């Protein structure tokens, strides 16, 4: 059998555009002699469609477009296309996350997803009912078992009490005598999946002694980035074919011998760089922006954000504004302009010091009348950050550019950021990168360029917000290596304060950092969408209440 792995970048809700991508890929697969073309999960609607599924017109229109598409597809080619199937209600839900077998000009069969993820960023149980056990389909004389994403992730090696699901769709299909397992997927990228997902799929193939075809969505949709990495695994778990990561791709491969095996990023930093490049590019284009604007401070965070934006959109479509006040250092301005020149992007100096002085003159007597400033008062530090945002948003409005924010995960975790200031914008590009990882990814960018793009002085100088004289991040925070180690244990591993202290960290510091994380949920809830890279990002996958009184 010849199988086409069709790895596409659909846009959520763009039924015509997505159908066009599917049709084009199917026609190419047919010309190249494929017997079966496999597309990704919900490729017709785009994934995740979220509450578009509450609109009856959307569900109706995508089904009508599927029927039209089935009539247009090459009739001799069997195509598995992800879509939303509507049928009799189960537990009050009438929709199924499904795959349509299109062949001979019609939808010949429908296979519904059985295991619905409802954790982290997933909430499929909100709209979908689980499917029933399906019969294998026959293609080119082989019995094919069809699964959809989560159906193949069931951890059958765990004790029964620890398993997330009581069913094992893969084993059921193996017991039914299938010759091949196919998985239509929309599995988002995280650094932890880079090696774990292919290892898991290879183990599935070995366990049931059948080849596995895994076809994954690629592209960015809001805060999720899908990396593709569609793969054919042999019955012994060997990789027989693999498509690109972070780019649309298609290959027709022989089931027994495989085909092209493309190499992906070799490190977490390289993979994160590709994921963020794809996420920025797709977010901007799918939302209708022609380019981006951001503040260039001369620091590492804005430098990396600018570098990613230039790679994603082209440097001619990225504008940087250096926004100095009396506290800005000349070396920071020099670094900002050096970076812009190295990237080939536009950069302008727009001093906000006059606006800052006007704010001081207007607000100081009014604020003093309300009450004296207490120790550690940051009122006028924050006003500088907010004036920068006013200026950046003015440029965004005038030029129609997407405003990119530049805060990293470490700062957002502890609230070392200004609400309605540096947190305000359209997309938080590096909000899921811990500060120490920001440096790794920045150095990876330079390594890939083969020259110094992000200045070495930016990589080596002490980080500073430059909102008061001689300010350093270390005035307010522990060193970033220590901070990130504590945050990883607390945010990603869900470790308790006592467990973190037991790892050798200073108790007052741990309690202070954890308290800052808990106390700044209200800030993070108001940040723009942030591209997800790690196992546990701030955003839809971490849903803590703002007003809550629990203390361990």
Blueprint (SSEs and pairs):
Layout: E1 2-7, H1 15-31, E2 36-38, H2 56-72, E3 78-90, E4 93-103, E5 106-112, E6 137-139, E7 142-148, H3 169-175, E8 180-185, H4 193-208, E9 212-216, E10 218-221, E11 224-227, E12 231-233, E13 239-242, E14 249-254, H5 268-286, E15 292-295, H6 300-313, E16 318-322, H7 330-343, E17 346-349, H8 353-370, H9 379-399, E18 402-405, H10 409-414, E19 427-428, H11 435-449, H12 456-460, H13 480-492, H14 497-502, H15 507-519, H16 521-525
Parallel strand pairs: 1-2, 2-3, 7-8, 8-9, 15-16, 15-18, 16-17, 18-19
Antiparallel strand pairs: 1-14, 3-4, 4-5, 6-7, 9-12, 10-11, 12-13
Helix pairs in contact: 1-2, 5-6, 5-11, 6-7, 6-11, 8-9
Features:
552 residues, alpha/beta, Nitrilase/N-carbamoyl-D-aminoacid amidohydrolase, Rossmann fold, 2 domains, six-stranded mixed beta sheet, 16 helices, 19 strands
Q: Can you walk me through this structure?
A:
There is one protein chain. The chain has 552 residues and is an alpha/beta fold. The chain contains 16 helices and 19 strands. The chain folds into two domains: 2-264, 4-Layer Sandwich (Nitrilase/N-carbamoyl-D-aminoacid amidohydrolase); 271-473, Rossmann fold (3-Layer(aba) Sandwich). The protein has helices at residues 15-31, 56-72, 169-175, 193-208, 268-286, 300-313, 330-343, 353-370, 379-399, 409-414, 435-449, 456-460, 480-492, 497-502, 507-519, 521-525, and strands at residues 2-7, 36-38, 78-90, 93-103, 106-112, 137-139, 142-148, 180-185, 212-216, 218-221, 224-227, 231-233, 239-242, 249-254, 292-295, 318-322, 346-349, 402-405, 427-428. Strands 5-4-3-2-1-14 form a six-stranded mixed β-sheet. A six-stranded mixed β-sheet has the order 6-7-8-9-12-13, covered by helices on one side. Strand 12 and strand 13 (239-242) form a beta hairpin. Helix 5 packs across helix 6 (300-313) and helix 6 packs across helix 11 (435-449). The chain starts with a strand and ends in a 27-residue tail after the last helix.
């Amino acid at each position: 059998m010849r199988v086409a792995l069709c790895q596409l970048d659909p846009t959520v809700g763009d039924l015509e555009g997505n159908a066009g991508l599917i049709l084009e890929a199917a026609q190419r697969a047919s010309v190249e002699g494929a017997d079966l073309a496999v597309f990704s999960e919900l490729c017709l609607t785009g994934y995740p469609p979220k509450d578009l599924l509450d609109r009856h017109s959307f569900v109706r229109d995508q089904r009508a477009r599927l029927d039209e598409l089935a009539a247009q597809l090459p009739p001799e080619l069997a195509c598995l296309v992800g879509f939303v199937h509507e049928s009799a209600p189960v537990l009050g839900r009438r929709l199924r996350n499904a795959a349509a077998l299109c062949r001979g000009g019609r939808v010949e069969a429908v296979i519904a997803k059985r295991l619905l993820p409802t954790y982290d960023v997933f909430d499929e149980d909100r709209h979908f009912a689980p499917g029933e056990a399906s019969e294998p389909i026959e293609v080119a004389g082989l019995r094919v078992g069809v699964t959809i994403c989560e159906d193949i992730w069931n951890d059958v090696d765990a004790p029964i009490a620890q398993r997330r699901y009581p069913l094992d769709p893969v084993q059921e299909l193996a017991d039914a005598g299938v010759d091949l397992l196919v998985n239509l997927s929309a599995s988002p990228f995280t650094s932890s999946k880079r090696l774990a997902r292919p290892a898991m799929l290879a183990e599935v193939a070995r366990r049931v002694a059948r080849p596995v075809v895994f076809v994954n969505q690629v592209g960015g949709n809001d805060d999720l980035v899908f990396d593709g990495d569609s793969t054919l695994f042999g019955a012994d778990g060997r990789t027989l074919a693999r498509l690109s990561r972070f780019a649309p791709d298609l290959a027709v491969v022989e089931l027994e011998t495989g085909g092209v095996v493309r190499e992906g990023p070799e490190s977490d930093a390289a993979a994160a760089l590709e994921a963020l490049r794809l996420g920025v590019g797709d977010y901007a284009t799918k939302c209708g922006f022609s380019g981006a604007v951001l503040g260039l401070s001369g620091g590492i965070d804005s430098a990396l954000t600018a570098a990613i934006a230039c790679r994603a959109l082209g440097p001619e479509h990225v504008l940087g504004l250096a926004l100095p006040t009396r506290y800005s250092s000349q070396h920071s301005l020099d670094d900002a302009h050096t970076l812009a020149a190295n990237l080939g992007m536009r950069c302008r100096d727009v001093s906000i010091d006059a606006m800052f002085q006007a704010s001081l003159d207007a607000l100081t007597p009014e604020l003093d009348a309300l009450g004296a400033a207490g120790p550690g008062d940051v009122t006028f530090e924050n006003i500088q950050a907010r004036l920068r945002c006013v200026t950046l948003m003015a440029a965004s409005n005038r030029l129609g550019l997407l405003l990119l924010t530049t805060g990293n995960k470490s700062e957002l975790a502890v609230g070392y950021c200004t609400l309605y200031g540096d947190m305000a914008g359209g997309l938080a590009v590096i909000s899921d990168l811990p500060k120490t990882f920001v440096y790794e990814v920045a150095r990876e960018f330079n390594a890939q360029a083969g020259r110094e793009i992000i200045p070495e002085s930016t990589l080596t100088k002490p980080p500073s917000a430059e909102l008061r004289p001689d300010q350093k991040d270390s005035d307010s925070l522990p060193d970033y290596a220590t901070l990130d180690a504590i945050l990883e244990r607390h945010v990603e591993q869900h470790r308790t304060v006592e467990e973190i202290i037991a790892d050798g960290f200073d108790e007052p510091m741990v309690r202070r950092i954890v308290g800052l994380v808990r106390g700044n949920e209200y800030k993070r809830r108001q940040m723009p969408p942030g591209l997800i890279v790690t196992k546990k990002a701030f955003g839809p996958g971490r849903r803590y209440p703002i007003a809550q009184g629990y203390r361990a």
